[in-house]
Design brief:
Layout lengths: L1 H37 L16 H5 L3 H8 L7 E2 L2 E2 L5 H4 L3 H4 L18 H7 L5 H5 L21 H8 L1 H6 L2 H12 L28 H9 L4 E2 L3 E2 L3 H10 L6 E3 L4 E3 L13 H13 L7 E2 L6 E2 L6 H5 L3 H4 L4 H5 L2 E4 L2 E4 L10 H4 L8 H42 L6 H4 L1 H18 L9 H27 L34 H8 L1 H4 L2
């Protein structure tokens, strides 16, 4: 009995010692983690300022974040419908040359690269090369305004402070480009001319803040409260979307000064956007003589609207937005680096790391999560191609109708007779472009994407019916075209573009386009 009791007491002592050791180990690990974290505190921020936004300077204080940011330099990754491989989308989708006929996008349009290249891509595209465009079908093109640099360069806020908002926007883009190159070097990555840490972070404490005036103006006009430090009154989670939404938006240039404006005046606060709200805004500013069109379509002669990259607007109606998910949750998920948890700064498609992005909320296999995304994108891509066929049919019919009117001696009245069809072309094209130019291929809001494309196809058909009715009034029998799937012939790479920009799409993209169900993996 005595021996058993002694052994029992010994066991308790040993067990207690092991438990104490475990607790002590955990305590020491916690201390180590806190010690490591303490290395990244406010004293380091003393070297940071608005005057020098070069990422490598800011990165000295935050080497782990900078290393992940720098990984974007080497990204040439691709997904079936996106990624950062800079091939020519005009070679992949030659129908775009007719859908945007008369607009520089029909001359050069590439898959964008990572955020590091945001200014480089803008410098290299032939859409910004006035001499090249003038020699390739755009004799009246005078160059882009400086307003185009608002979102493409981390140096834009300092240029705005230096020049003033109106002067910054109206200064020719080429002049601003040369100013940056003179101040910060001509090399591709000299001065960090693309997106920088300062675009989203305050040098005072690295908190998230808004740096772009157009976004602030648009949000305040919608009823959001201003904040002197962050720009807007918002929670940390909300700021993880606000900083992205400064640029991933639809916009236009207002007036002679080319002021950058977001068409959100009809978008109620804390409500999902519908494209009809943007269209209503454009109708209002056109009536006021402020802005009426982006260009005139060279085939249909319709005044057109060009959608840009409305990720913010489409995302607002999706399930993720309604559930409080931020842009960064999916595109910049948290990850552990040694003893620290950081936000991933290698910004890219969630498809490259579905476990960290989707898997944080969805308890399914990586294969299942990836397939859910691709399933939405395949269906959206299929509907995009169908809508494009309907648009091309309408464009061809408007051309044929104009010729019929000319042959009937009615050339002088042609634009009035074709007015309804041209209005349908504008309406249908803007809706198609809204989904086509949005970079998620429908995933940000699948149901809204399909609704918008369905309305676009319906409107294209309505334009064809208008041609039949309006030409009948002139005693001209007109038979509308069926869906046009005979895309224009594929072009060739632009010799002047610096490879890899402007190259043909990869075999994986070709396989996807030829077999949506089995080729888009």
């Amino acid at each position: 009995m005595f021996r058993m009791g002694k052994m029992k007491r010994l066991g308790i002592v040993v067990f207690s010692g092991i438990a104490a050791a475990i607790l002590l180990g955990a305590f020491l690990v916690s201390i180590a983690r806190r010690t490591e974290a303490a290395k990244h505190t406010l004293p380091e921020l003393a070297v940071l300022s608005e005057a020098d936004v070069r990422p490598e300077v800011w990165g000295r204080a935050f080497p782990e974040h900078f290393a992940r940011y720098s990984a974007m330099k080497e990204n040439s990754e691709t997904t079936p419908f996106g990624g950062s491989l800079p091939y020519s989308k005009l070679l992949r989708y030659p129908q775009l040359t007719r859908l945007w006929a008369g607009y520089p996008f029909a001359a050069d349009f590439n898959e964008e690269r990572s955020h590091i290249y945001s200014q480089v891509d803008q410098m290299e595209t032939k859409r910004n090369d006035a001499k090249w465009l003038q020699a390739h079908g755009f004799p009246d093109f005078k160059g882009q305004p400086g307003a185009c640099m608002n979102c493409h360069s981390g140096w834009a806020p300092s240029l705005i402070r230096e020049l003033g908002w109106e002067t910054f926007n109206s200064t020719p883009y080429q002049d601003l480009k040369e100013h940056l190159e003179k101040s910060h070097g001509e090399g591709i990555h000299a001065g960090g001319l693309g997106s920088t840490c300062a675009d989203c972070h305050s040098p005072k404490d690295m908190s998230l803040r808004i740096t772009r005036p157009a976004y602030l103006q648009a949000m305040i006009s919608r009823g959001y409260a201003a904040d002197p430090e962050k720009g807007l009154v918002a929670s940390p989670q909300e700021m993880r979307s606000h900083v992205c939404q400064q640029c991933h938006v639809e916009y236009y240039f207002r007036g002679e000064n080319k002021e950058l404006v977001f068409p959100w005046s009809k978008w109620p606060k804390e409500k999902p956007l519908r494209i009809e709200m943007i269209e209503s805004h454009y109708t209002e500013v056109a009536a006021a003589g402020v802005f009426s069109k982006d260009w005139v379509h060279s085939e249909s002669k319709a005044p057109m609207l060009k959608a840009q990259h409305p990720e913010t607007e489409l995302f607002s109606s999706g399930l993720h937005a309604r559930s409080g998910v931020s842009c960064a949750d999916c595109h910049m998920p948290y990850k552990r680096v040694g003893a620290r948890k950081i936000t991933e700064h290698n910004i890219r498609s969630p498809l490259f790391d579905v476990r960290s992005s989707c898997g944080a909320c969805h308890n399914q296999s990586d294969e299942h999560l990836r397939e859910r995304v691709l399933s939405v994108q395949r269906k959206t891509s299929e509907q995009l191609r169908a809508t494009e066929g309907n648009l091309l049919a309408l464009i061809s019919d408007i051309q044929a109708a104009r010729l019929a009117l000319e042959n009937a001696g009615l050339a002088g009245r042609a634009d009035d007779i074709l007015a309804r069809a041209k209005a349908s072309h504008r309406t249908a094209s803007f809706r198609w472009d809204f989904i086509s130019s949005e970079n998620s291929t429908g995933f940000h809001s699948p149901q809204e994407s399909m609704r918008v494309l369905a309305v676009a196809s319906e409107e294209a058909r309505r334009g064809q019916f208008a041609l039949v009715e309006d030409l009948a009034k002139e005693r001209i029998v007109f038979v509308p075209s069926a869906d046009v799937r005979a895309w224009p012939l594929e072009g060739t790479p632009i010799p002047e573009l610096v490879a890899p920009v402007g190259q043909p799409p990869s075999k994986s993209h070709r396989d996807c386009d030829s077999d949506l169900e089995n080729g888009c993996l």
